[in-house]
Design brief:
Chain B: InterPro entries: ABC_transp_permease, BCAA_transport_permease. Chain B: Keywords: Amino-acid transport, Cell membrane, Membrane, Transmembrane, Transmembrane helix, Transport. The complex is a heterodimer of chains A (412) and B (291). Chain A is α/β, with parallel strands linked by helices and 412 residues long. Helix content of chain A is 43%, strand content 19%. Chain A folds into two domains: 7-166 and 301-381, Response regulator (Rossmann fold); 170-294, Response regulator (Rossmann fold, 3-Layer(aba) Sandwich). In chain A, strand 3, helix 5 and strand 4 (146-148) form a beta-alpha-beta unit. In chain A, helix 3 packs across helix 13 (325-344) and helix 13 (325-344) packs across helix 14. The longest helix of chain A is centred in the N-terminal third of the chain and has 26 residues, at 15-40. Chain B folds into two domains: 2-248, ABC transporter involved in vitamin B12 uptake, BtuC (Orthogonal Bundle); 257-291. Helix content of chain B is 77%, strand content 3%. Chain B is built from 13 helices and two strands. In chain B, helix 1 packs across helix 6 (154-164) and helix 5 packs across helix 6. Mean pLDDT of chain B is 85; it is low at 285-291. The chains are: A alpha/beta (412), B mainly alpha (291). At the A-B interface, helix 1, strand 7, helix 9, helix 10 and helix 11 of A face helix 1, helix 9, helix 10 and helix 11 of B.
């Protein structure tokens, strides 16, 4: 699952929102925390350190609000499940949700408040990379563990930050050799022009070489591009067998559509990347039908726990579309964190953080999932899904325990 | 050939929007900042009313757009009409309302419109998607019609008169308020048409129009108020520049250079000697045509 809207685009498309959103977010946050605080603080007479409390920072308004809402929904169901099973340390888990509207300035403020005023045991949430980094810094300062559910690859690693989303390597390692084998050795890379797609292309290039292929073209275009003809022309003249795309947001749709119109994306040519995310399936339909995509979790997994979660999600939110991957990552991520808190035996954030680093946990994300100390990436399974004409992302293959142990700076 | 076709395709989109914004600017001296969002509205009509064939949807977008634009002009723009800045802010607000409205109605997720004419056409040896050609030619034809109307009809004469000197035009019997209303509606409809026509090529989402505003604004900047042909010319120049730069250079470099060149042209144009030269150049044929 790739964040559909990188930061740069948001700034451009809602300049007016920026002035009103913080005020609105603050007001909303007050209401939310006020309500929750009042409702939950009744039994707030901690004998053994009080209940475990999760501070949730998510964008519930603004351009990425849909993804943010899905994450919160997943988290809520996880807490409900854990509480139904007896809670942590025998007490129900509490959580406080605040809305950062996708603005890192808000994220920092709100995370600080959650740590200082609400005295949360752990933080969870954020969608875009810059808000994750903002909360990650607060978490590191305050020595409070912080979990994310989107793309494990943040630019910086923090000692207190743990990513439950797949890393770029985990996404590409099982994918690239298959594409090279099936479609041919010539691979073209294309992306939106900001730092993540460049990073993605770097990893992809390395893996393509390892698989015996060559990168024949590498193109980037600024966000918000409406005419892809020159880029597609250059890609086409390189005659690639596979196109790996990290063109994100609405551009993912424009690019794929125009690439098809100009005859670059034929069914014979391999295609993988952001355009295959479930968010874009309704728009791209036949263009992605029959293609395979690599994800960490899909709502079509048939283990009992995933099935129960999907059923609860559909019932709780009258949800008919596919359940977003980020909701699943959040659900199993929160359960992982709470299991670590239980194992730590106390609510002390530092003890919980230590416990997270050492925990090995069985879930639908994999048997014995655990974090690598060198990069704080969750070592877990990946799935190959095949996209059906009806929009179903059916799991066709499981890649057990796809590891990513490339060290990152700042983890310890 | 590839490049020429790309320029034509780009010109259709930018040309419709720029001529539209120029029509509005001519009559009202207001830069319509909602132009891109009106295009977005047109695209959404094409994306949602899928029960009707594509041509009908385009007409539907225009039919629905006309009364909306008239009402907006009547209710919101008439009062601040004399105050250009206030009117511009009103159009900014209108654009924002359209964007947020679309987000509420259709969510922020992108949609696509099925291409009404499938397949590719061989244009002098270059295969090109048929629909792109159809919509570029349609757009060019509409632009030509508007230019023809501006230079060959009574209405066009009055529009140019109001653009030149609204007070004098009013004294000579042109109702400037009516002129403003029709110009705003026509200019807005050109944007709606652009959005509907180009919707099968683009991703339809609430913020799609916002990105179109910048090149269109540059087009208006480079044109002469009231002279719609210069607006079309400016749109052609901008499309050519953008396509050529992007063909020769990487996209990122091309975009940076594009802005630099446009700003340089705008700055050069304001030099007095260029103004004198072009004025002299323009006036030379005048006596010949009057005779």
């Amino acid at each position: 699952m790739v964040p559909s809207y990188p930061r740069a685009r948001e700034r451009r498309m809602t300049p007016a929102l920026r002035t009103t959103a913080p005020a609105l977010a603050a007001a909303l946050a007050l209401v939310l925390t006020g309500c929750q605080g009042a409702a939950l603080s009744d039994d707030d007479a901690p004998a053994t350190g009080g209940p475990v409390k999760i501070g949730v920072v998510v964008p519930l308004t603004g351009p990425v609000s849909q993804v943010g809402t899905a994450l919160r929904n997943g988290l809520e169901l996880a807490v409900r499940k854990v509480n139904a099973d007896g809670g942590v340390h025998g007490r129900p888990v509490e959580y406080v949700v605040v809305d950062d509207a996708g603005d890192p300035a808000n994220s920092t403020q709100l995370a600080r408040r959650l740590v200082r005023q609400d005295k949360v045991t752990m933080l969870f949430g954020t969608i875009t990379g810059d808000t994750a980094e903002a909360v990650g810094r607060v978490a590191d300062e305050a020595h409070v563990p912080f979990g994310t559910a989107i793309l494990g690859d943040t630019e910086h690693c923090f000692a207190y930050q743990w990513g439950f989303g797949e890393s770029t390597r985990q996404m590409l390692t099982p994918t690239v050799p298959g594409l090279v084998r099936k479609h041919g050795t010539k691979v073209a890379l294309v992306g939106s022009d900001y730092n993540y797609p460049h990073f993605y292309a770097g990893v992809a290039g390395e893996l393509v070489k390892k698989a015996g292929g060559t990168v024949v073209a590498e193109e980037y275009s600024p966000l918000g591009q409406t005419d892809w003809q020159p880029v597609i022309g250059r890609l086409k003249s390189a005659a690639p067998d596979t196109v790996l795309s990290m063109v994100v947001g609405a551009d993912a749709v424009t690019f794929a559509k125009q690439a098809q119109q100009f005859g670059l994306l034929t069914p014979k040519i391999g295609f993988e990347g952001a355009s295959l995310d479930a968010d874009f399936q309704p728009a791209l339909g036949p263009l992605v039908t029959g293609r395979t995509h690599t994800v960490r979790w899909s709502d079509r997994l048939d283990d009992a726990e995933s099935l129960a979660f999907v059923k609860d999600y559909r019932a709780a939110h009258q949800w008919k579309a596919p359940v977003p991957e980020v909701a699943g990552n959040a659900y199993f991520g929160v359960k992982f964190l709470l299991a670590a808190a239980e194992k730590a035996g106390s609510n002390d954030p530092e003890a919980v953080n230590k416990s997270i680093g050492g925990l090995s946990y069985d879930s639908p994300l994999g048997k014995g999932t655990h974090f690598d100390a060198a990069n704080h990436v969750l070592q877990a399974d990946m799935r190959e899904v095949t996209i059906g004409g009806d929009g179903a992302y059916t799991v066709t293959r499981t890649h057990p325990m796809v590891t990513d142990t490339t060290p990152k700076k700042g983890c310890s | 050939m590839d490049v020429l076709l790309a320029i034509l395709g780009q010109f259709g989109l930018y040309g419709l929007l720029t001529v539209g914004i120029a029509v509005i600017f001519a009559a009202t001296r207001v830069v319509n900042l909602a132009q891109g969002d009106l295009a977005m509205t047109g695209a959404y009509v094409a994306a949602t009313a899928t029960a009707a064939p594509f041509g009908l949807r385009t007409l539907l977008a225009l039919a629905a757009g006309a009364p909306l634009l008239l009402v907006v002009e009547r209710l919101l723009l008439r009062r601040p009409g004399s105050d250009g800045l206030a009117a511009m802010l009103v159009t900014w607000g209108l654009g924002m309302a359209l964007r947020q409205g679309a987000e509420l109605l259709f969510t922020g997720t992108s949609r696509t419109v099925a291409v009404p004419v499938e397949g590719t056409l061989d244009v002098l040896g270059t295969p090109y998607p048929t629909y792109r050609l159809v919509c570029a030619l349609t757009a060019t034809a509409v632009i030509a019609l508007v230019l023809l109307a501006a230079h060959r009809t009574d209405w066009g004469l009055r529009l140019r008169a109001v653009a030149d000197n609204p007070a004098m035009a009013a004294l000579l019997g042109t109702d400037p308020r009516r002129m403003r209303a029709t110009a705003f509606t026509l200019g807005g409809l050109l944007a709606v048409l652009a959005g509907a026509l180009y919707s099968p090529v683009l991703a339809v989402n609430p913020s799609m129009g916002f990105g179109l505003l910048v090149p269109v604004f540059f087009g208006l900047l480079l044109s002469r108020p009231g002279a719609l042909a210069t607006a079309a010319g400016a749109a052609l120049l901008i499309s050519t520049l953008s396509v050529l730069l992007r063909t020769w250079l990487s996209d990122t470099l091309a975009e940076a250079l594009f802005y630099a060149v446009v700003v340089a042209i705008a700055a050069l144009r304001s030099r007095p000697w260029i103004g004198r030269f072009s004025a002299w150049f323009r006036r030379t044929p005048a006596p010949a045509s009057a005779a």
